[in-house]
Amino acid sequence: MRWNQVPITLESVSFTDQNTAVLSNLSIEFKPASVTVLLGGSGSGKSTLLKTAAGLIPITSGSVRYGENSVYGLNQKDYARMQQHTGFMFQDSALWANKNIQENLSLPLQIADSKARTADVESKVRDALERFSMVPYMNSRPSGLSAGRERSYPFSGQSLRNRIFCFWMNPPPLSTGKAY
């Protein structure tokens, strides 16, 4: 299977949490290198749908497939291979508060390849930060970033790892009710 060229497909997926139907008979296909936007109010199941598509939470019924394979039926090796082509960006950016942006981006690369040369990791991180005009902030800690810059950080991280699928959970800012 060409892991980087297959869709993630949810067919008739339902998810129930504590007797509450969060997803009900939902079907959707996420195609590689495409953008799909999910809109809905708070508590409508957007985050649950993304976690289900990524194989992070079990479904009550239906199927979630990566290509022709059930995500929940993959052996450990194939699941790890699928994860190499998927990424997850969390709504709070999931940054380590005690590390600067460069260190936050370097950490997953160092974990994935413990033999990677420091200079190579730093070069990759700098390239990723350049794509999103974040180089001036690479030595800043998360608390030193504006909310907008903090929201840009996950894109740098995912571009760094060349993910085919990227699940991004990021709510819009709270509305003041005013039209702009």
Salient structural properties:
21% strand; 5 helices; disordered C terminus; 180 residues; four-stranded antiparallel β-sheet; alpha+beta; two-stranded parallel sheet
| Coarse structural class | alpha+beta
Helix content: 25-40%
Query: Taking strands numbered 1, 2, ... along the chain, how are they ordered across the largest sheet?
Result: 2-1-3-4
Any idea what the shape is? globular
Q: Give the biggest sheet.
A: 4 strands, antiparallel
Uncertain spans:
174-180
Order of helices and strands: EEHEEHEHHHE
Mean pLDDT: 78
Query: How many angstroms does the end-to-end distance come to?
Result: 48 Å
Radius of gyration: 18 Å
Number of strand segments? 6
Number of distinct helices: 5
Q: How large is the share of residues in beta strands? A: 15-25%
Describe the overall structure:
This protein starts with 7 loop residues before the first strand and ends in a 12-residue tail after the last strand. The chain is of the alpha+beta class. The chain is 32% helix and 21% strand. The strands form two sheets. It has a four-stranded antiparallel β-sheet with strand order 2-1-3-4, covered by helices on one side.
Short account of what is shown:
With 180 residues, the protein is α+β, with helices and mostly antiparallel strands. It has helices at 46-53, 76-84, 101-112, 118-131, 147-160; strands spanning 8-17, 20-30, 61-66, 69-70, 86-89, 165-168.
